[in-house]
Amino acid sequence: MHRLVVVALVMTMALAPATWAQPSASQVLRWNVGTDFETLDPAKSTGIPEATVIYLLYEGLTQRDPQGRLVPGMAERWDVSKDGLTWTFYLRAAKWSNGQLVSAGDFEFAWKRALDPALAADYAYQLYYLKNGKAYNTGRIKDVSQVGVIAKDARTLVVTLESPTPFFGDLLSFHTLMPVPKTVVTGNPAWAGKPETFVGNGPFVMKEWTRQNRVVLERNPNYWDAKSIKLQRIEFSMIEAESTALVQYEAGQLDGSSNVPVADIPRLLKTGDFKAMPYIGTYYYLFNTTHKPLDDARVRRALAFAINRTLITARITRAGEKPANAFVPSGIVVNGTDFRQAGGPLMPVYDPALAKKLLAEAGYPNGEGFPTLTILYNTSQRHKTIAEAIQEMWRQNLGVKVNLTNQEWKVYLQTRSQHNFDIARAGWIGDYRDPKTFLDMFITGSSFNEGLWSNKAYDRLVDATTKTADQAVRMKAFHEAEKIFVQDMPLAPIYFYVQPILYKNYVQGLATDPTGPPLLRNVWIEGH
Amino acid sequence: MASSIPVSDSTDPGRALARRAMNVPGPAARDTTPSVGFWADVWRRLRKNRGAMIGLWITVFLIVAAIIGPSLSPYRYSDQDFDHLFEGPNRAHWFGTDELGRDVLTRVLYGARISLSIGFVASFFNVAIGVTYGAISGYAGGRVDNLMMRIVDVIYGVPLLLWVILLMVVLKPGLTNIYIALGTVYWLTMARLVRGQVLSLREREFVEAARALGVSTSRILLRHIIPNTMGPIVVTMTLSVPQAIFVEAFLSYIGLGVQAPMASWGSLASDATEVLRVAPHLVFFPGMAIVITMLAFNFLGDGLRDALDPRLRGTL
Amino acid sequence: MGGFIFRRVLSMLLVIWVVSTMTFFLMKAIPGGPFTAEKQLPPEILRNLERRYRLGDPLWKQYRDYLHNLLRLDLGPSFKYEDLTVNDIIRQGFPVSAELGVLALLFALAVGVPSGLISALRQYSFSDYFSMLWALLGVSIPSFLLATLFIYLFGLRLHVLPAGGWGTPAHLLLPAVALGMYPTGFIARLTRSSMLEVIRQDYVRTARAKGLAEITVTYRHALKNAVIPVVTYLGPITAAVLTGSFVVERIFAIPGLGRHFVTSIYNRDYTVIMGTTVFYSVFLVAMNLVVDVAYGFIDPRIRFD
Fold first, then answer.
1. Cα separation of B249 and B251, whole Å?
2. Within its chain, how far is the Cα of B237 from the centroid?
């Protein structure tokens, strides 16, 4: 009996240092992503909640450091050819969570899979920069070996692009371009849905996924940079009702949340819980340029200048959004320069006098004779309030009367795409950090150009940016294009988004990606 | 079970009048009160019921407020004032202001028009369609009952939201759409409840007696059966009103009904749930309006039921 | 009785078929599909997707294929949730919603029926008005408001119960009450009014005049008859509550089936729309059969033919 006790004591003492040596047991982050995931397959996912988790489960060729700078990920280093068309990546020796080595073949497999028309990945277009990427995905060519990505050997990946794409390095950190383990995925279509079959190369592994309820991640000991990861465990809740999420946060059941009730934001800004993180997105009202009198740029500009943007951001949205003075928001930094800052303001944030003048010039002094147009928006409290405010502003400032109509989301999308609207509320979040994500939507004939605006000079400028890798030349062209764009006002930008995020002060190391998700990789919990 | 006295025979005023006219002595000595018309009798008894009178006056007040209220207000329901957002009740705004600085009292008065009309129209559907349908189904029994109830099941089963979205696409937004949407589904509970009651009532002796006497089916239904189902009818009618109000709020929210900035009590209350912690008065006032309307309808309905109750006739 | 049940089952199947057919064509008629999105897919991808899910087939063919699968109880894959089938969704969500629903109904019955009885027996007294007020309040305060209030009050201010979520008995209490408030009010009022009807009947007055033993017998009999409207009401309400309430489950973050009824329509997730609708109608017709059979027990004179 004695001996057993001694053995037990010795064993406990042998194990004890192991527990002491680990970081504090409370390195657990409880975060609300706001909804269940459609899928956690990096090739197929589209939403921000999914991206939040995928960035923890997988790692691409590059990734972002806590300051948001692009740094090596799976690729230790890479070379770019002179013409900007060939990129060669040299992978580090990293492992999947099941111990297998991450090979260049996994990247080739993953990218070709994302482009596979049978998979029908929503974000396949992120890979259209690859040579024959679009052709393969749209079925114009059937031979997948023609796509411009090949694994020269287990640690070397050679990528050939369609045209010079200087921001390609940025794209490499995007989840669609992440690797998936070829051996696991082949023949197992539902691999990403269950913890048992999941395999990833990121800092965390999937421990549990209870649908509609929660996802639990735990530290991946096989991660190549495991020693820099401080969190032990992350528990994601899926609370959709923002007020409930807030109550849980305030009651101490949550450490952070990706959704916040708008009404409480001013109060939370004061307490410091609410952090308005940069988000490259613009909220705007789209004009249907084929509906009279919206075909007249003076009318559009009049309507745009009659909107008191400061009032809207200060009194209605109140989360720290910036009134829009152009179309492309800040946060797109190219070669150390922020595009918006370099471009400066391209329009007044509010100028009712100028608006009145323009409307009179267009033939509707004080709004006389102006037809009653309709503002279309999708079901939402916020959109309704903003629309009501703008309706009043136009009535007071211009004497223009508009009606409001709201439609359920998909009906609204359909109405927009069928050009069945006068003025439609819309918003756009950039997919990557380059002005192209905002400005190429409005070239003539683009399916995103639902207002049917067309300007040849604009088209030429945007097209020119795809022909060169010289960022200086590209940025100059984009600035010119944006000037034309705002001058002609096919849409009235209203404000630049902020990403609402709530988290406690003891949550340190959190960064956000301006295209959407919070980056939780480097988080640690300060003693509290 | 002793149901010795057929309830309707001795108390049917028509028969009582006929008997008196022919100088036939009635079954009870109760017939000493002067004979009055049926509805005048009902009104007289209603007036004696304090609760019912309060309910009636409140309803009248609400209707009047809805009609003339908005024109009495110095504000219009859409007047925005960015310097006075989310204010609680004060001298300038008795019910406070909302997220755009609009006067809540004016909006509640305006909303009364929509919500009260929804309440009345919905109750009308309930009675016109629900009671009739349920009574016919229950009384007919057998295959007819099965068919009618299965139709009810089908309407219950098809998702209302799909139908609503279709309406929204096919028709222009407006209050009529709400009526159509409500008219499709609103009367189902009433029909079911009435059918259940009728099934149980039609086996009663007094119904058999009436049938044996050769009374026509519609008369049986109208004079004997339905008055005896007034209980569930009144309850369902009153309790369905807030449901109708919130269904309207939901329909308007997704774009089917009245468009912004028009608002009903239902949409005022549900929109304000988001800001409950910040501005509870925005939920409170329209909510109170709904509760008060409900209470008024309820007392009035109870009173009507008592006034119409054949068993109580002559005892009050 | 056997013949009756057999005929009823046939008509139940007919109902389920009609409901699924109407839902099928209704959902195809409204604009937007599962792949309609703001960041539009290139038309070629859309075509691929449609081919994969056979959305390009002629409508009657899609309908026929769907019915085929339905007969084998295969409700198809979800369009929105990539790795889930509709059967999975129902299997995971229904037990949760059912647990919550049963609790809510028990609450409604346990509070509603006694309160209605007391009100009827003591009509126009203080307790009558008091319980009537409560019933009416419970009915006019919508569940989303109640749910939000509860979470705020008990989850934060008083901090005695978890603010939403699922897993422990403590998580059940608030949502069950929030869900059960409306049925409680309805049941209380129905009980009260039908009790009132019954006790005014002559046989009850006679029994009262005759003495105590008669009272108990007649009151029990009276109660049985008074309960018919409650039983009628319970039929469809049980089906609705047990398959989950969208509002309550959303606000309390409960992983039930309720949310799918609504979100599937917003997502145009065709298979989930059909699956939840069929599931609900099966429940509904079953509950109505139970109600009709119950009528037979309560009032043996009721006949259906």
1. 6
2. 4
Q: Cα dist. C151→A247, A459, B167, B300, C147 in Å?
A: 7, 53, 35, 35, 6
Q: Which residues in chain B are contacts of C262 at CB distance < 8 A? A: 161
Give the integer Cα–Cα distance in Å for A274 and A319: 9
CB atoms within 10 A of CB B32: 8
DSSP letter assigned to residue A214: E
Task: Point out the residue among A44, A117, A241 whose CB comes nearest to the CB of C48.
Answer: A117
Which stretches of A5-120 are assigned E, i.e. beta strand?
A: 28-32, 62-64, 70-72, 75-80, 86-91
Enumerate neighbours of B (3 or more CB pairs within 8 A): A, C
Q: Quick one: pLDDT band at residue A4, thresholds 50, 70, 90?
A: low
CB contact under 8 A, A263 and B82: no
Asked whether the beta carbons of B119 and B62 are under 8 A apart, the reply is no
**Whether complex ipTM tops 0.90:** no
Query: B205 with B141: CB under 8 angstroms?
Result: no
Contact B159 C265 (CB under 8 A): yes
Alpha-helical regions (H) of A34-101: 48-57
Beta bridge partners of residue A503, listed in sequence order: A256
Contact A309, A350 (CB under 8 A): yes
Question: Is the CB of residue A241 less than 8 Å from the CB of residue C253?
Answer: yes
What tokens were used for A52? 């939040």
The Cβ of residue B262 has, within 10 Å, a number of other Cβ atoms equal to 18
Cα–Cα dist C247/C138, whole Å: 16
Query: B137 touching C, CB under 8 A?
Result: no
**C174 and C252 Cβ atoms separated by less than 8 Å:** yes
Averaged pLDDT, A81-87: 90
| Chain B residues 16-55 within an 8 A CB cutoff of chain C | none
User: Under a CB-based contact definition with an 8 Å cutoff, are residues A309 and A469 in contact?
Assistant: no
Q: Please report, for chain B, the start and end positions of each structural domain, with discontinuous segments joined by +.
A: 38-312
Residues 6+ apart with CB under 8 A from C107: C176, C177, C180, C184
Q: Which of B3, B235, B238, B304 to mutate to test the interface with C (most CBs of C within 10 A)?
A: B235
Beta carbons of A90 and A76 less than 8 angstroms apart: yes
Q: Cβ-count burial of A80 within 10 angstroms (0-12 exposed, 13-18 middle, 19+ buried)?
A: middle
Q: Is A379 on the interface with C (CB under 8 A)?
A: no
Name the pLDDT band for B9 (thresholds 50, 70, 90).
very low
Per the listing, tokens 């349908």 go with B133
**In chain C, what residues touch A413 (CB-CB under 8 Å)?**
32, 36-38
The highest-level CATH class for domain B38-312 is mainly alpha
CA distance B117 to chain A (A): 22
The dihedrals phi and psi of A225, each to the nearest 5 degrees, come to: -115, 35
Element (DSSP H or E) covering residue A415? helix A409-417
B149 touching C (Cβ < 8 Å): yes
**Per the CB < 8 Å rule, is A406 touching B255?**
yes
Instruction: Point out the least confidently predicted range of A300-304, A371-375, B165-169.
Output: B165-169
How many residues does this entry show for chain C?
A: 305
Report, in angstroms and rounded to the nearest whole number, the Rg of chain C calculated over CA atoms. 24
Identity of the residue numbered A148: G
Residue C218: which H helix or E strand, with range?
Answer: helix C212-242
What is the full DSSP assignment across A291-305?
Answer: STTTTSHHHHHHHHH
> Which residues of chain B does C235 touch, with a Cβ-Cβ cutoff of 8 Å?
192
Token digits for A9? 């004591």
Going by the DSSP 8-state scheme, the letter that residue B35 receives in this structure is P
**Average pLDDT score, chain B:** 81
Chains touching A, CB cut-off 8 Å, 3+ pairs: B, C
Return the SS3 of A210: strand
Is there a contact between C162 and A448 if contact means CB atoms under 8 Å apart? no
